[in-house]
Design brief:
CATH superfamily: Sodium/glucose cotransporter
Structural class: mainly alpha
Largest sheet: none
Radius of gyration: 23 Å
Shape: globular
CATH architecture: Up-down Bundle
CATH class: Mainly Alpha
Distance between the termini: 46 Å
Helix content: over 70%
Order of helices and strands: HHHHHHHHHHHHHHHHHHHHHHH
CATH topology: Sodium/glucose cotransporter
Length: 527
């Protein structure tokens, strides 16, 4: 019965996605890469949230909450502020320029080489880190939930290969052959399911703690574990309080404002108003995110005390409190979250390759249909490589996921630096962007992978979020100095392409201020 529920919900999502995308012209760049620039606010919000939320985050963040408590909510609540900044500052500029990819702006603002370097950094992050990790963590979750090795009568390794390829093939069909609109529509449906299913876990958990009474469970949890409800992290925590004002906000702004896999949803908006509404709706829901990715970890701590591996907190809680009738539905929703993260990154990789590399460097005169076809071919190769690599992650050292979060700083801060400076200045030359992005990658790599482990020692080294902030300031300073010494001959002026209406959302400022005030109030409440 559980397996039939799983298949039924998954099939329903596929059918609705197919019906909703039949009229989209998938042979044009706008049609395939941006869903025909037709996405509405609700679709954008759903796709943003589900692209962000996947198994490694649900399991990993709840594992951190199990150890440290509510202070890890910073990864969720502060994202809301970054989305407001994106809606107010970045999205109007993106849509005014009619961008399909973020690196396209860098070509117009600086030059083609800067764009290519940035696209290559994005692609390397997706190929080497993100896609295999999503496939592996997703396969692990599905195998555990359905006990796939026993179901199929195969070894754990064989089951892992089967599940990885199953997820990869289905995700590739959405991303490569359906384009952004198929991805976004399926994301929206799964987002509703994930919000419903995700909320069931803490509700049933609190009811279990309260001996059948939800409110009694809340009271017992807070009273018994007051140390888990402190929003301020100490110097030895994973998120020291000071990092909220330094690298944390930079990471959030990069992720929600410049990361191609995320911002591509907003670039596909039918107009600026819908794009801003989508970002603000997602920001509001993101404030509620800790209920799904933090609270269950604290409930698990109360129920189980100590676990050998904190990352087991969430799946153990699900197994303990979720009624059997809901298991199939929840597994289908989780499967949708896995697919979303995979196909979103894959679709963005296809877009970056087709627009920023193939058309720019291989076939300047290529028609849109040819660009789309080249992107799809690249996507197939990329998906196969990711599916081949993912099972081998099982042999990787412990702590891989936390380590990879730190590794992402190699490209996130340099890219954010040149985009922010590019929009805020008019005379900074292309050479400044090239030097900043290369120095950002090199200096961060030296800092975290040479100085920290081998020279200074990890225990005496600044937190990696502080390091990101310091290097951001350094690279901005480098760009400004170069701009002062060797300015552009002509100031950069952004052209309005008239591809979509850029009339802003009427209540943008009011809603934005309300979201920021809510985040601040939450932190004050949990002091």
């Amino acid at each position: 019965m559980q397996f039939l529920t799983f298949l039924g919900f998954t099939a329903l999502v596929a059918v609705i996605s197919y019906l909703k995308t039949r009229g989209t012209d998938e042979d044009s760049s706008d049609g395939y890469f941006l869903g025909g620039r037709s996405l509405t606010g609700v679709v954008i919000a759903g796709s943003l949230l589900l692209t962000n939320l996947s198994t490694e985050q649900i399991v990993g963040l709840n594992g951190q909450a199990f150890k440290e408590g509510i202070l890890v909510m910073a990864w969720e609540t502060l994202a809301a502020i970054a989305m407001v900044v994106t809606a107010v500052f970045l999205l109007p500029r993106y849509l005014k320029g009619g961008l399909t990819t973020v690196p396209q702006f860098l070509e117009r603002r600086y030059d083609k080489i800067t764009k290519t370097i940035t696209s290559a950094l994005f692609l390397s992050g997706y190929v080497v880190v993100f896609l295999p990790i999503v496939l592996y963590s997703g396969a692990l979750a599905i195998n555990t939930m359905f006990d796939v090795p026993e179901l199929l009568g195969v070894s754990d390794t064989t089951a892992l290969w089967i599940t990885v390829w199953g997820i990869g093939v289905i995700g590739s069909i959405y991303a490569i052959f359906g384009g952004l609109k198929a991805v976004a529509v399926s994301d929206t449906i799964n987002a509703v399911g994930l919000l419903v299913g995700g909320m069931l876990i803490p509700i049933f958990g609190l009811i279990a703690i309260g001996d059948g009474n939800l409110f009694s469970g809340i009271s017992t949890l807070v009273t018994s574990n007051p140390e888990k409800f402190k929003s301020i992290g100490g110097p030895d925590s994973s998120i020291p309080f000071g990092t909220i004002f330094t690298g944390m906000m930079l990471v959030q702004l990069f992720y929600w404002g410049t990361n191609q896999a995320i911002i591509q949803r907003a670039l596909g908006a039918k107009n600026l108003r819908e794009g801003q509404k989508g970002l603000l709706l997602a920001a509001f829901i993101k404030i509620l995110g800790p209920l799904i990715v933090v609270l269950p970890g604290i409930i698990a701590f109360h129920m189980f005390g100590q676990l050998e591996n904190p990352d087991e907190a969430y799946p153990t809680l699900v197994t303990r409190v979720l009624p059997a009738a809901f298991v199939g539905f929840f597994a289908a929703v989780l499967f949708g979250a896995i697919l979303s993260s995979f196909n979103s990154a894959l679709n963005s990789s296809v877009t970056l390759f087709g627009i920023d590399i193939y058309k720019s460097h291989f076939r300047h005169e290529a028609e849109e249909k040819e660009v789309v076809r080249a992107g799809k071919s690249f996507g197939v190769v990329l998906a196969i490589l990711a599916m081949c690599v993912a099972p081998f992650i099982a042999n990787a050292p412990d702590g891989l996921f936390g380590y990879l979060q730190e590794v992402n700083g190699c490209y996130s801060i340099p890219i954010l630096t040149i985009i922010v400076v590019g929009y805020l200045t008019k005379y900074i030359p292309a050479i400044a962007a090239k030097i900043a992005i290369i120095s950002g990658v090199v200096l961060y790599s030296v800092s975290q992978f040479i100085l920290k482990p081998y020279v200074v020692g990890a225990e005496n080294y600044p937190h990696f979020l502080h390091v990101m902030a310091m290097l951001f300031v350094l690279n901005v300073s480098i760009m400004l100095i170069i701009g002062k010494l060797f300015p552009r001959e002509e100031p950069y002026e952004q052209a309005y392409t008239d591809q979509v209406d850029i009339t802003p959302f009427k209540y943008l400022k009011v809603v934005g201020i309300g979201i920021v005030a809510t985040v601040i109030a939450i932190y004050i409440y949990f002091l």
